[in-house]
Design goal:
The chain has 2 domains: 9-144, Ferritin (Up-down Bundle), CATH 1.20.1260; 152-347, Alpha-Beta Barrel (TIM Barrel). The chain is 55% helix and 10% strand. The chain is built from 14 helices and 8 strands. Strand 7 (302-305), helix 12 (313-318) and strand 8 (324-326) form a beta-alpha-beta unit. The relative contact order is 0.09.
């Protein structure tokens, strides 16, 4: 309960501090709430954050508001150059989460003697915001990854090459936004080091970096996601290990595999092989018509894979295939950048 027996200058200054920080905390919470609502569409977080705003509003006592102009604030309107660097949703989330956390800490300290109930409330909400910040950042990262999957039609899978980093940068420059790092030989140490370098390249070009099969390498390199085959670790276990900020793709070639992948919450599906391919020797192609049947009601992003080259993409497009995954066509190209540009134009119907 507020102890307001005295109204000396020190009390007024404390009331001003509490008033200013209640405003800051509620403003920051509103930013987080609106992002959860409009940016992410996550009702659960909207309700939680709105509830915090209402609790602080109920405890924003009149005596705090009345103290606002009794002692002049000579530092009003001060800004910092870092404010102009908040140019992504992630930076806005982090800065406003920090704003709320700092404001609540100030309230907690300065209301301890005057209003123990408010001090306790500030402490409880502050610890909740630590978790909410991480959740909102993870959800934002996942949303960005999902948008890249939906908006981009070319998915490139790497092969092991001495100049792999050069090839990847060339195709990233060309406009490719999805790279899967696939390796079958070499030591874990070397593969992880290469994965980290590719991840840094993809980050520079705002592209997705996905690891084939290996969850440990995906976690250690901070990949954006992982691609799993039918004989790899199951999707539910992979999600538990990776968390919900990462995307998970699944290879499938029949109705049952696709149904299970969707039920377990995959983010995209690789369907094939469409044609015969040296990458999957001995695996029988499932063909155009079968894939059309499998995908006719499929809303989740899917990529046709297996034997796809620049000279058969137009044929796939005529049959309604929108997204394709390539391996050898770009990995073995003498000019991977130009090759990638031509394939992207073919996929977008540009001439």
């Amino acid at each position: 309960m507020l102890n307001s027996n005295t109204t000396n200058a020190e009390d007024l200054r404390i009331y001003q501090i509490i008033d200013a920080n209640l405003d800051r905390a509620r403003e920051g919470l509103r930013v987080l709430e609106d992002w959860a609502r409009f940016g992410l569409g996550k009702e659960k977080y909207v309700k939680r954050i709105k509830n915090f705003r209402q609790i602080l509003g109920r405890n924003h006592l009149e005596i705090y508001k009345q103290s606002r102009n009794l002692i002049a604030d000579k530092c009003k309107g001060l800004n910092h150059r870092e404010q102009i660097n908040r140019n992504t949703s992630e930076k806005i989330i982090s800065s406003n989460s920090g704003r709320v956390q700092e404001a609540l800490r100030v309230i907690e300290e300065f209301s301890r003697l005057h209003n123990h109930e408010l001090s306790k409330i500030a402490s409880e909400i502050r610890y909740e915001i630590y978790t909410i910040e991480i959740d909102l950042l993870s959800l934002s990262k996942r949303k960005n990854s999902e948008e890249i999957l939906r908006e981009n039609d070319l998915y490139v899978i790497t092969d092991q090459k001495d100049n792999l980093l050069e090839i990847i940068e060339e195709i990233l420059i060309a406009g490719v936004r999805i790279i899967q790092y696939r390796f079958k030989t070499g030591t874990d140490k070397d593969n992880l080091q290469e994965a980290i370098k590719i991840k840094n390249l993809c980050k520079r070009y705002d592209s997705l970096f996905i690891i084939n099969d290996r969850i440990d390498i995906a976690l250690a390199s901070n990949a954006d996601g992982i691609h799993l085959g039918q004989d790899d670790l199951d999707l539910i276990t992979a999600r538990k290990l990776l968390g919900f900020s990462k995307i998970i793709g699944i290879s499938a070639n029949n109705e049952s595999d696709i149904s299970n992948a969707l039920k377990d919450g995959c983010d995209y599906i690789g369907i094939g092989p469409v044609f015969e391919t040296a990458t999957k020797k001995g695996k029988k192609p499932i063909g155009i018509e079968k894939i059309k049947t499998l995908t006719k009601d499929l809303d989740t992003p899917w990529f046709a894979i297996g034997g796809i080259k620049s000279n058969n993409i137009s044929y796939l497009r005529r049959n309604g295939f929108q997204k394709v995954a390539l391996v050898s066509q770009l990995m073995n190209s003498e000019d991977p950048k130009e090759e990638a540009i031509m394939i992207l134009k073919e996929l977008s119907h540009e001439n």
